[in-house]
Specification:
The complex is a heterodimer of chains A (810) and B (323). Chain A has five helices and 50 strands. Chain A is globular and about 100 Å long. The longest helix of chain A is centred in the first third of the chain and has 29 residues, at 2-30. Chain A is mostly beta strands and 810 residues long. Chain A has a 22-stranded antiparallel barrel. In chain A, a hairpin with a 4-residue loop joins β24 and β25 (376-400). Chain A starts with a helix and ends with a strand. Chain B is mostly beta strands. In chain B, 9% of the residues lie in helices and 44% in strands. In chain B, strands 2, 3, 7, 8, 13, 14, 15, 18, 20, 21 and 22 form an eleven-stranded mixed sheet that branches. In chain B, strands 6-5-9-10 form a four-stranded antiparallel sheet, with no helix packed on it. The chains are: A mainly beta (810), B mainly beta (323). Chains A and B meet through β43, α5, β44 and β49 of A and β1, β3, β4, β15 and α1 of B.
Chain lengths: 810, 323
Amino acid sequence: MTRSRDIRLVPRIGTFALAVWCAVGSRVAAAQEPTYPLHGRVVDARSNEPLAGATVYIPAQRVGAVSDSVGAYRLDLEAGIHLINVSYLGFQPREIEVELRGPRRLDVALQPGAIPLGEVAVEAKRYDERDPEPTMQAVSIPVAELATLPAILGEVDALKALQLLPGVQSGTEGTTGLYVRGGGPDQNLILLDGTPLYNPSHLFGFLSVFNTDALGEVRLVKGGFPARYGGRLSSVVEIGMKEGNRDRFEADGTVGLVFSSLTVQGPLVREKASFIVSARRTYIDVLARPFLDRRLPAGQRLTSYFYDLNTRWTYVPSRKDRLSLSGYYGHDVYGSTYEQRSEHAGVGYLDRNSGGAGWGNRALSFRWHRQFSDRAWGEMAVSGAGYRFRIDSRLTQIVEDDPPVETFERVSYASGIGDVIASADAGVAISPVLSLRSGATFVRHVFDPGVSEVRLRLADAGLTDTVVTTGDFSFRGNEGLVYAESLWDFEDRFRFNLGWHASAFRVQGRTYVSLQPRAAFQFAPRADWSLDGSFGTMRQYLHLLTHSGINLPADLWLAATDRIAPQSAWQAALGIEKRLAFDGMTVGLEAYYKRMDGLIEYKPGATFVAPDQDWQDKVVVGRGWASGIEFLIRKRRGRTTGWLGYTLAWSGRRFPELNGGRRFPYRYDRRHDVALVLQHALHDALELGLVWVYGTGQAITLAEARFAGLPGSIGGSLSPVAPSELQWFGPRGGYRMAPYHRLDVAFNRHFDAAPFSKTGRSTLSFGAYNLYNRHNPFYLFVARGPNGERRYRQASLFPVLPHVAFRFHY
Amino acid sequence: VVDVQAPAHEPRLVPQGFFSTDSLWSVWVSQSVAYTSAETPGFVEDAEVTLWKDGAFIARFLPADSGRYDASGPLPDRGVAYAIRVEAPDRMAVEGIDSLPPFPHLAGIETRFSDPGNAAPADRKRLEATIVLDDPPGPNRYGVLVLQARLREDRRTGTYTLFPPALFPFESDDVALSPNEWAFLSLGPTSYLEAFFTDEAFQGGRHPLSLSILYDAPPAQAEVVVHRAFAVVVLSVSEAFYSYWTTSRKQALANDNPFAEPLRVGSNMSGGMGVFAGFQFNLFPIAVDTLGHHDVCGPATPYRTLCESLLRTPAVDITRGLF
């Protein structure tokens, strides 16, 4: 009896809460002066492409808004005449006078122009140019700004730019992995047009998979997650592709030493439909082949390249509807082939060996965005994404007899993950004070944790294509989530976002359920001060099993199972920001604490190259935590702009089976992390960019001593594995690699012309990565000295690395 | 590529000793060297090793062989904590303490022949053995399962030859054998030379543990009958023994594998290196011959001599197959 009464109460409480929620919002609204919505879209005047992150600001009232991913903005203003500033980095700002007597739509087209030096370098939240979220933990980097940053291998990389922000750390030298506030690289939800990508790196992580020419927006949320985000613990990186020019055809390209890229965009149906296609390919293997052939043994050849393709097709059938199809395909291939011919007893033998590794992402999404009215919108999407990693070794011997006899052996190891995703979102502005947003997503995961295959064709034995497959075979998991958000805005003095994110994951007959509250607030007692805070819990049903020593992309994407629970975390953050009067300078300070459970690590001694073991038997489960203080000072106006970011951080782990159950530092526990970014306009057509970074060395585990093995090994044990000598490892993470620091410099010389065109533009970019040739640690290895003694040696990756690239635009 | 400074290391004493109910007290004492040193870790000849029982001194070890120290103290009792203390000039003294684990209780054994498979040669035999292990209440127990084999050739002339024991591989898909974690010790995913287990998987009851022995039985000859004797040896080991044994084996196998995670060898010595640990063992002999007979060395066995010789196997012979 009691139970059924409780059950009946639940919907009543929910209905009551919803009624109070809406009523309070409406009542607060009713207490204001009559206001009307001013809404519309900010677009690129040349291409009619939406500008996400554009600022719409009314200086007299100190209120403003930032356009969303489709360029839409909305302000609720009192009736009257308003002077509105609309600006976007890389475009000429506009000042528009608007008379408001009722709801009004105002679309604003901005003309591209030289990057105004007074604009921001990093578009973090500002009180008067607000991010849609009431938190300064959301950071956007306009893609136009990336071009002024120093490049690596001639390419400015979006993910590398994010690594320059406080609270965001890089992995080892050159890698694009993000380690946000003590979390791992798997804990970042990286979305390309809303579709997750699992391994966003090329060239062993030196470059990300994102082709800057095709990007329209890069946004990082490192805390205070709105309820719409789920499935990861540490951050969300939203990468939006350009929609393509709906008015005329354009082409952008880059010719560099290592790779080239070409981006083409244009209208399919004028004003209605557009496309953009962008492709990259490295050719270092082709260019270096003549040099390598002289150094490699005869018959050996190395292969090393990647390629990727981005595309987006957009159709705008009406002012209310927008349909888009986005796709990505990329692949890395690294390998070696060796061929040798010999002769025995008058018979010729041809031995051909090859081996290598390859990995790649693919993603495809279809999205329909509809603006129901000036207050309500909805969006539906269907997408698919996948990642696959493979190591392969082939041995072939051909006996050139009559007839020829061929023996073939192939050993391969593959791992991967694939998703099919369907989602629906909707939002409505109930009043100037209250906006609601809600949605649901379903994800069908297919996991291939790791399968090893041996294929034999032994002519002598009469066997044909014998295949032996071992390992963890694929399994499926279903993930579903729903969320509800309420964004409250009290005269821009006090804003907060409250929401709930609920998710469920069913795998191998077991269901995990999670209810995650999210809250973030922003309080601005004065125009030049703001205080931000947030709290949220997160749940992640995916695991990434990463080897602690090597840096190959041998990471295994795995799922929570009936034996291995999901990861979970909670994070609290509090920050303060002050605007200074000088040249638009701001100073921000933010502290955070994060607690993580359900983390996995390899067991001591375990290796991923043992596919006959279930991966669940190779891992241990533990917890972690991270805390830190982030400091950011930036200058947004004048000939010199830039920022200085500093993070003081701690990140630890505790696993019962590791380090004797004692706490140990996370590999990327970086006590000090500094990034100095400066951009200076030498004159109108020449820019100088400088980046200096410093980070505490990685915490790694080294063998400190050796001692004699088991006594019987001296007397001749019967066991084949009785060791004669053993190593004694120091505490886990007890050794620090050398600190990481380097200085990059880049010059960009702009020309109002391009080859074979009078109307094009071009840029010659040149500079150097690691200008003072710092030998930064990439990894440590053991080598033997002349007397047989062991030595720890540090391999560095990049010396000073000059680069030159030519970018053109038609 | 540049050299980096290795972590500093002061040489430490590394005792390694195992004791059982019927063995002498023996401890090997060596000394660690820095990982990057060109030296080979050597034995210590000038150590002073003492044995303590429940905190009271009971014996002093004497140098017996290169790095080995023996003591003729009383044989160890169950439930008593024994400690060794090792001292040497200019080196920090180290201590370790342990006690004997309970005697492994084997409730029974059954054997039968089964089909060795179509692809097997004609003289290949597959013998299935099921031993029943008990999981008494109390804390977790640790064990090691090995199969020792002896070969005896009986000639019609009345003479015979007994070959020394050797470890013999066996197969088992029993999940209690430390899942597949120890597959690397084996010749295949379910083939073992040494199988480690805890009784956690027994869930407090009796656990029938099946293993399969594949061997070749040459055709019987007029003059010679070949007896092959197997001994299923179950060691009950202390936690310190188990930790040291498994981690050292694992580290040895992972040596030079760049994909292997760092692994610290388990130790119950105060210096962090070495072990002083107790164990006990029990064994089941199984005898087969070329005539196709198999038996479990019961009272009516025709292989009494062979079986009795197996049952009398001293601990040193059993452990010699392992150490």
